[in-house]
Amino acid sequence: MNHLPPPPIIKCVDCNYNENKTLSFLQSRGIRDKNALAVVMGNIKQESNFTPMICEGGLKTSYRGCRSGGFGLIQWTTSRRYYGLGSFCNKYGCDPNTLTGQLRYMVNESQWRKLEPVLKRPGYSISYYMKHSWNWLGWGIHGNRTRFAYNYRSRLYTM
């Protein structure tokens, strides 16, 4: 029988509901390194500011209302990824407009499944995790995402 104590819980100072729910979700997947968590959080902030019902460019709309560009938390842009969100939620009974539905889909995409084992390796720098996250999102430049990651890192604490 395993008598190890549960892993510590990482919380975020001044994070909103969607940020906290995402942070908790990531930890439930076994991601415990603060730098790894900060990188995922920083990337999502850059993509959507944690707004599930947002179309690229800032239009707040539903999954079906986004006619061009990316949609949702990580701005699913290619038709394969965008329609994948709808198909996944249709198959598994979730709503593509919600944080929960999008997080469930995100961790089932092949891009995430390749990244997640890296995120579960503790002890690396933000730049290490950021370098590996490129394959997940395919962003062109770091932009604010790296600054956001460092900001989240400064706000994460262990309970």
Description:
- α2 packs across α6 and α3 packs across α4.
- It contains seven helices and two strands, in the order βαααααααβ.
- The two termini are about 25 Å apart.
- The chain has a two-stranded antiparallel sheet.
- The protein has a single domain, classed as Orthogonal Bundle (Lysozyme), CATH 1.10.530.
- With about 160 residues, the protein is mainly alpha-helical.
Percentage of residues in DSSP E strands: under 5%
* Name of the top-level CATH class: Mainly Alpha
Structural class: mainly alpha
**How many structural domains does the protein architecture include?**
1
The number of E-state strands comes to 2
DSSP helix fraction: 40-55%
Low-confidence segments, given as residue ranges, are none
CATH architecture: Orthogonal Bundle
Strand order of the largest sheet: 1-2
Number of H/I helices: 7
By CATH, the topology is: Lysozyme
Q: Taking Cα atoms only, what radius of gyration do you get, to the nearest Å? A: 15 Å
* N-to-C SSE string, H for helix and E for strand: EHHHHHHHE
Distance between the termini: 25 Å
At a glance:
This protein is mostly helical and 159 residues long.
Helix-strand blueprint:
Elements: E1 10-12, H1 17-28, H2 34-48, H3 79-92, H4 99-106, H5 110-119, H6 126-137, H7 144-155, E2 156-158
Antiparallel strand pairs: 1-2
